[in-house]
Design a protein that fits this description.
By secondary structure, the chain is an alpha/beta fold. Helices cover 43% and strands 25% of the residues. The chain is built from 16 helices and 17 strands. A six-stranded mixed β-sheet has the order 2-1-3-8-7-6, sandwiched between helices. A five-stranded mixed β-sheet has the order 14-13-15-16-17, sandwiched between helices. α2 packs parallel to α7 and α11 packs parallel to α16. The two termini are 51 Å apart.
């Protein structure tokens, strides 16, 4: 089946909000094995929305519309969809009761509910009403002429759970085949390198397929197969997944979609019974914060230092004054002393030190903005790597964090295999 997305809202067109709903829905449609060829953003204009919906229904089996289901005058998605499908709007008693119950939780009496809120209880005749457990506007499914329109509320905290819990199963049943996907997450290799390593597999693919998704410092590979049932789909995927594991080896940090790089690192350190100390300069705590996001990180992290100034590098982790004077704060020598000093001060098994130039100012020809040194110390072994990141200040700092996690992970793996 082909699917098309229409995001409704002038605020999206004006750039007042980022259209995260489209990204979420696109990924979910890919998981379902639906073919997505078009996405449209339409402002709160009934004529333009009508034209966009009619065009979408001509070329796609399913059209998913997000936004425009609220109580205000510019919320017109439901009205336009009813017009396109030739349906009249009628009050749905069940939805009215749910709206009343929603306001009751907020201490609002039925007689105090403004009239425009009851607008949300009007639904196109014959539509499937999808209860909204996080708001007042229900979702709607309109079926007709071998086409389906799915109307979802705009707020992500309403749209996402509604789609996951109710729309995803509905669409899954519409698919004649079972779609199964598995994610392979890679760190330490760029997107172009990964793609070149699997170009032969991509060119020859039919079923299963493999698709690449680039993240900061990571590349994710989604392997997807279609079959009559899940067991058969997984059987089809097995040889391809095995081949990917052979090609990428320990660059693969997980094959579970929900696992993040920082979770994989924490799990690895727990397994090895290791404690960690961090020393950050240009990242200013971002690296430690990423690790602290992981539940159970307290079992691993012993201490974290933010040594932004030269004085703090000397005072807190024992970087030598001569080193700073001769080589500078952003240097291989300083990074090494930061990591080694952190281990000595805290007695941890592992230390990670990050120092660099995040910009936008302060760079020179010898030490340009984006230059970052990361040191990983494990027992008596300290390894320092030099990086040259591009982008703005935020991007450089984010790239340094991911590089630090990747370098830490590889250092632990090397230590384990020694």
């Amino acid at each position: 089946m082909t699917v098309e997305l229409i995001s409704v809202g002038t605020e999206i067109l004006l750039g007042n909000i980022v259209n995260t709903n489209a990204a979420f829905l696109s990924e979910k449609c890919a998981q379902l094995g639906l073919s997505l060829y078009y996405q449209t953003v339409v402002g709160d204009n009934p004529e333009r929305l009508k034209g966009a919906l009619e065009q979408a229904l001509e070329r796609s089996d399913v059209v998913i519309l997000g936004g425009g289901l609220g109580p205000t005058q510019d919320d017109l998605t439901k009205e336009v969809a009813a017009q396109v499908f030739g349906r009249v709007l009628k009050e749905d008693a069940h939805t009215r009761q749910r709206i009343e119950g929603f306001f009751k939780l907020w201490g609002v009496k039925p007689e105090e509910i403004t009239e425009n809120n009851w607008k949300q209880a009007l639904v196109p005749e014959g539509a499937i009403v999808v209860d909204n457990d996080n708001g007042t506007a229900p979702g709607l499914i309109l079926e007709g002429n071998q086409r389906i329109a799915i109307l979802l509320p705009g707020p992500p905290n309403e749209l996402i759970p509604m789609f996951n819990q109710k729309i995803f199963p509905y669409l899954h049943k519409k698919q004649p085949e079972t779609i199964v996907s598995e994610m392979i997450k890679i760190c330490g290799l760029g997107e172009s390198k990964v793609e070149s390593m699997i170009s032969d597999l991509i060119e020859a693919q039919t079923n299963p397929t493999v698709a690449t998704y680039a993240k900061t410092g990571e590349v994710h590979l989604r392997v997807t197969a279609k079959a009559g049932d899940e067991a058969e789909a997984r059987k089809l995927m097995k040889p391809l997944i095995r081949e990917l594991k052979v090609r990428f080896g320990n660059k693969i940090y997980t094959t579970e979609e929900q696992i993040t790089l920082e979770e994989a690192v924490i799990a690895l350190m727990k397994e090895g019974g290791m404690s960690l100390t961090t020393v950050e300069s240009c990242t200013g705590g971002l690296f430690t914060g990423r690790l602290v996001n992981v539940q159970g990180a307290s079992e691993v992290i012993k201490q974290g230092f933010i040594t932004y100034s030269n004085k703090s590098k000397r005072k807190l982790v024992g970087v030598k004054k001569l080193t700073l004077k001769q080589f500078g704060a952003v240097s291989q020598k300083t990074a090494k002393e930061m990591a080694r000093g952190a281990m000595l001060v805290t007695g941890s098994d592992v230390a990670v030190a990050i120092t660099g130039l995040a910009g936008p100012d302060g760079g020179t020809e010898e030490k340009p903005v984006g230059l970052v040194y990361i040191a990983v110390a494990i027992q008596d072994d300290v390894k320092v790597q030099e990086y040259h990141f591009t982008g703005n200040r935020a991007k450089i700092r984010e790239s340094a964090v991911v590089a630090g996690l990747t370098q830490l992970r590889m250092g632990i793996l090397e230590h384990i295999t020694l």
